[in-house]
TrEMBL record:
PROSITE patterns: PRD_2
Protein's UniProt name: Transcription antiterminator BglG
SUPFAM superfamilies per UniProt: PTS-regulatory domain, PRD (SSF63520), SacY-like RNA-binding domain (SSF50151)
NCBIfam families xrefs: LicT
Keywords: Repeat
Keyword field contains Repeat: yes
Gene3D superfamilies, per the entry: CAT RNA-binding domain (2.30.24.10), PRD domain (1.10.1790.10)
């Protein structure tokens, strides 16, 4: 592959004969090089093989921010993927890099943005949040800037967002709000404090997260001919009453109609997470 554009000594854009592009990073990889030169891949430390739309946006971003911010973001992404044992969508290289760079540039100006969903993020995305807290330590070590805890919440949401097919951040915020509101409906309907350390609570949160994603993307479980809806409704009448409140909430606030099949899963999870005798029997 040949050099198409040199951003600096450490970041360059390559292209092959078919027009496919790759952004590569490596210490001194662009030193004394020129456009159309062939690169030595033994010097490549990191490569971004991304779709053209993402590549264009990333190139534009690289031209606007310090290279150190790109390298810092890349280090954090690699660390997060390792700790969370997953692969993020390419879009995170744009969104997280842009966010971190902006946060670092506005901090000396005293501009600190509060994260309105910090409590919910800490509660519902505990693993991502813990990694994000460590990301703040990485940032401090590299830049000397100690960003506030609110930034850990924002970084955690970027990790969550990058697991959901690279959806936009607005939908990730919506998902978090939906999960929080539905959990509160269950808690207040039964007038109990849910055991957040239980395996049933963990299962319930996982179900809520996937459900919130499905409802925002109109991918609800379809109706089935041999549905268990009537059977489960009569077996768990209190869970059914609670699930109806959830159905009403979604219709009023999001104009989304919940299928009976989704209601079946809600009733089962609600029963599990609120029935203490059932929990004790499983332990």
């Amino acid at each position: 592959m040949k050099i198409r554009k040199i951003f600096n000594n450490n970041v360059i854009l390559l292209t092959d004969d078919n027009g496919n592009e790759m952004i590569v990073m490596g210490k001194g990889i662009g030193y004394n090089k020129h456009n159309s030169d062939v690169i030595d891949f033994s010097q490549v430390e990191k490569k971004f093989v991304v779709e053209k739309a993402t590549s264009d946006k990333l190139m534009s971003l690289i031209g606007e921010i310090p290279t150190e911010h790109l390298e810092l973001s890349n280090e954090i992404i690699e660390y997060a993927e390792q700790q969370l044992a997953l692969k993020f969508s390419d879009n995170i290289y744009i969104t997280l890099t842009d966010h971190i760079s902006f946060a670092l540039r506005r901090f000396p100006e005293g501009i600190i943005v509060k994260n309105a969903l910090l409590w919910e993020i800490k509660k519902f995305y505990a693993a991502e949040y813990e990694v994000a807290l460590n990301a703040l330590h990485i940032i401090e070590q590299k830049t000397g800037i100690k960003l506030p805890e609110d930034e850990a919440g924002s970084i955690a949401l970027h990790f969550v967002n990058a697991q959901q097919r690279g959806q936009d951040m607005k939908q990730t915020y919506q998902m978090t709000k939906i999960v929080n509101d539905l959990a509160n409906i269950v808690k207040y309907h039964f007038g109990i404090k849910l055991d957040e350390s239980s395996i049933n609570y963990s299962r319930f949160l996982t179900h809520l997260r996937y459900f919130a994603y499905r409802i925002l993307h109109d991918e609800l479980i379809p109706e089935e001919r041999d549905s268990l809806y009537d059977h489960v409704k009569h077996k768990y009448p209190e869970s059914y009453a609670c699930a109806r409140k959830i159905r009403n909430y979604l219709e009023i606030n999001y104009e989304k109609k919940t299928t009976n099949e989704e209601m079946v899963y809600f009733m089962i999870h609600i029963h599990r997470v609120t029935n203490r005798e059932h929990d004790l029997a499983e332990e």
